[in-house]
Write a structure and sequence with these properties.
Helices cover 30% and strands 26% of the residues. The protein has 698 residues and is α+β, with helices and mostly antiparallel strands. It folds into 4 domains: 1-156, Alpha-D-Glucose-1,6-Bisphosphate, Chain A, domain 4 (2-Layer Sandwich), CATH 3.30.530; 224-291, N-terminal domain of phosphatidylinositol transfer protein sec14p (Helicase, Ruva Protein, domain 3, Orthogonal Bundle), CATH 1.10.8; 294-487, 3-Layer(aba) Sandwich (Phosphatidylinositol Transfer Protein Sec14p), CATH 3.40.525; 508-554 and 573-623 and 646-664, GOLD domain (Jelly Rolls, Sandwich), CATH 2.60.120. It has a 7-stranded antiparallel β-sheet with strand order 1-2-3-4-5-6-7. It has a 6-stranded mixed β-sheet with strand order 13-23-15-21-24-25. Strand 4 and strand 5 form a beta hairpin. Helix 6 (236-252) crosses helix 7, helix 7 packs across helix 8 and helix 12 (343-368) packs across helix 13 (391-407).
């Protein structure tokens, strides 16, 4: 049905003003009508400056578009390239409509393009901007146009197109020869000197009856009642993105799999771009694991200073059923809290508030019988003054915003800012660039007593629960704040030590890896067939993970100077055990193939020891290889190297030695799982040696 709707765009389309006309220049149909290839010459009126058109000497631009419909495979491939100025500008575009592999009622759409501007009368930059603008505009309208023609077909009574079936003669032929007719090949686009365009993927629902069950496993499609009860309204495309991302996590992520509601927040934060959502979600899962955020409500008790002077707390719910958090920022001594507690304790407290918010959303979902995935925040700025613009306090606030934005997307349903004073625009100017555009749209700001008038607080909160300090009748148990006594202030050294302790209250250890200075951990094995297990996250940079064995113990590291074998810093330790005079193969041997780990990845694995002795786990700086055909490095390698400041990497790791019989009793297999958080797809490699039972899968 989608393919029939697409053909209605020709010879011209009123929904695309720039598409003036088109003429068919070539057409081919196979005998069995399974293949239909049509080539058109399209006339476009590009939205370009009149001066540029005058210099170029053209009013219209011509493109050649080739559509290859394969009814047997149920695919439509569209290839387009520019005919006008083809010696100066090369534009190639490819689109593909296919049937969704898990649900035949869905149509998948993929689109990509490349642009190569050789020269254009000195206006190369302008032409590039125009091309990108037109392409972006077409992508945004693509789905709208298809849906327009689908609706037109529906109005004409066409809601179903039967699948193509071969003629009787063709059936007999295919049963004996099993041959396939070729599909028109795609254009081969050279990699060199091209500027990659945008990549767009959409899934359109072409089912005449979406509620009808489809064949397949229960995971192919979410239950409609479940969606309505816990997730809210989802289009077929959004539902498919959720299922695919959840399945990817189940296949690759070895830790705790987040709930559908949480996965959905990350998808919404990236407009259901599954690759972008997957990247930020996996980074967040790594962060949660490193800092044990899942256990923060059960294991961390806020200091008394926070309980007494942090003027914020939960207060019933708004009219939509969202949990309501009240923050009396104007009454809070941000400078005193930072001086008494430090930035890390303040951040951890805000994280505990967000974790409590997630828990309250789940509770309210059950209470109100509808999905509630965000909360409302009411911020009272009465009392805000220049003291709140203290630079370290603003810096702490910006960092808190950055962490919350990255790890709790789409959790803020509405932000009500009340009694904003004259100094507020200054604070807003400092803070607003760090807040996501979608989040900023949820802000409602009231000056003075405007919140008491029409369109004010009563539109969002029931009169019975408006706090007493805002003129309501409900007693609010939020602390009043006030100045933190200076006797509670702590020195910078005390705060620094406390900050390090705060984030290292975990079984994981932190290590820094430098170029030329790997970090190494020594494990002594007495009984052969013991199992060395490891679990580490690459927090910064790219590293190579190695495992070595030696019959003799390495010399203990020296700690008397930075130039020796050991470096200790707040960011993590760096210990080197393998002596520079040792030779690989003589003094020690490699027992596992090297494993390259990218920034943001999480690695878990094990190694069954064959001999007693000393085993060394090594995290080494990964040097980017140069391009094979030239001595010059690739652009991607240069950009990647710039991201690793001062050639420094950081890992968080945990190791343990377990008896072989105990390990087999608790695990189904000896597997090392390498979860590629920053990868767009999962690839698999294996490493096995005669003395090793470990398998590494990416």
């Amino acid at each position: 049905l989608s393919l029939q709707a697409y053909e209605r765009r020709f010879p011209t389309c009123p929904l695309i003003p720039m598409f003036v006309a088109s003429d068919t220049v070539n057409e081919y149909k196979s005998e069995d009508e399974a293949i239909h290839v049509i080539e058109r010459r399209c006339k476009l009126d590009i939205d370009a400056p009149r001066l540029l058109k005058k210099i170029a000497g053209v009013d219209y631009v011509y493109f050649v578009q080739k559509n290859s419909l394969n009814r047997r495979e149920r695919t439509l491939h569209i290839e387009a390239y520019n005919e006008t100025f083809s010696n100066r500008v090369i534009i190639n575009e490819h689109c593909c409509y296919t049937v969704h592999p898990d649900n035949e009622d869905w149509t998948c759409f993929e689109q990509s393009a490349s642009l190569d501007i050789k020269s254009f009368f000195g206006f190369e930059s302008t032409v590039e901007k125009i091309a990108m603008k037109q392409y972006t505009s077409n992508i945004k309208k693509g789905k709208e146009i298809i849906e327009y023609y689908l609706k037109q077909l529906e109005e004409e009574g066409i809601t179903f197109v039967p699948r193509w079936t071969p003629p009787v003669a063709c059936k007999l032929e295919s049963s004996t020869t099993h041959t396939r007719r070729p599909v028109s090949p795609a254009i081969n686009i050279p990699d060199s000197a091209t500027k990659e365009g945008l990549n767009n993927k959409e899934i359109l629902n072409t089912s005449s009856s979406p509620s009808e069950p489809t064949a397949g496993t229960p995971d192919d499609k979410l239950d409609a009642d479940y969606i309505k009860r816990y997730l809210g309204d989802l289009t077929p495309m959004q539902e498919s993105c959720l299922i695919r991302l959840r399945q990817w996590l189940q296949e690759t992520h070895k830790g705790k799999i987040p709930k559908d509601e949480h996965i959905l927040r990350f998808l919404r934060a990236r407009d259901f771009n599954i690759d972008k959502a997957r990247e930020i979600l996996c980074q967040s899962l790594t962060w949660r694991k490193q800092h044990q955020v899942d256990y923060i409500l059960d294991t961390w008790n806020p200091p008394q200073v926070l309980q007494d002077y942090y003027a914020g707390g939960w207060h019933h719910h708004d009219k939509d059923g969202r949990p309501l958090y009240v923050l009396r920022l104007g009454q809070m001594d941000t400078k005193g809290l930072v001086r008494a507690l430090g930035e890390e304790a303040l951040l951890r407290y805000v994280l505990s508030i967000n974790e409590e918010g997630l828990r309250r959303c789940e509770e309210n979902t059950k209470v109100f019988g509808r999905p509630i995935s965000s909360w409302t925040c009411l911020v009272d700025l009465e009392g805000l003054n220049m003291r709140h613009l203290w630079r370290p306090g603003v810096k702490a606030l910006l960092r808190i915003i950055e962490v919350v934005e990255a790890n709790y997307p789409e959790t803020l349903g509405r932000l009500l800012i009340l009694r904003a004073p004259r100094v507020f625009p200054v604070l807003w100017t400092l803070v607003s660039p760090f807040i996501d555009d979608n989040t900023r749209k949820k802000f409602l700001i009231y000056a003075g007593n405007d919140y008491q008038g029409p369109g004010g607080l009563l539109d969002y909160i029931d009169k019975e629960i408006i706090p007493d300090f805002l003129g309501g009748e409900c007693m609010c148990e939020v602390p009043e704040g006030g100045l933190v006594p200076k006797s509670l202030y702590r020195t910078a050294e005390e705060l620094e030590n406390e900050d390090i302790k705060l984030w290292t209250e975990t079984i994981y250890q932190s290590a820094s890896v430098f170029k030329g200075a790997p970090h190494e951990v020594l494990i002594q094995i007495v009984d052969a067939s013991s199992v060395i297990t490891w679990d580490f996250d690459v927090c910064k940079g790219d590293i190579v993970f190695n495992i070595f064995h030696s019959k003799r113990a390495p010399q203990p590291p020296k700690k008397d100077s930075l130039g020796a074998h050991s470096i200790t810093s707040p960011g993590g330790n760096n210990v080197q055990l393998i002596d520079k005079v040792w030779q690989l193969g003589r003094d020690y041997s490699m027992v596992e193939s090297p494993l390259i780990c990218k920034e943001g990845e999480s690695v878990q694995g094990s190694h069954v020891t064959r001999w007693p002795g000393f085993y060394i786990l090594q995290w080494k700086f990964h040097n980017m290889p140069a391009c094979a055909t030239t001595n010059l490095p690739r652009v991607d390698d240069v950009l990647a190297s710039l991201q690793v400041s001062s050639h420094k990497c950081k890992v968080m790791y945990y190791t343990e030695v377990i008896g072989s019989e105990d390990f087999r009793g608790s695990m189904t297999s000896l597997e090392s799982s390498h979860s590629g958080f920053s990868q767009l797809s999962a690839a698999t490699t294996s490493s096995s040696q005669s003395h090793s039972s470990s398998m590494i899968s990416r």
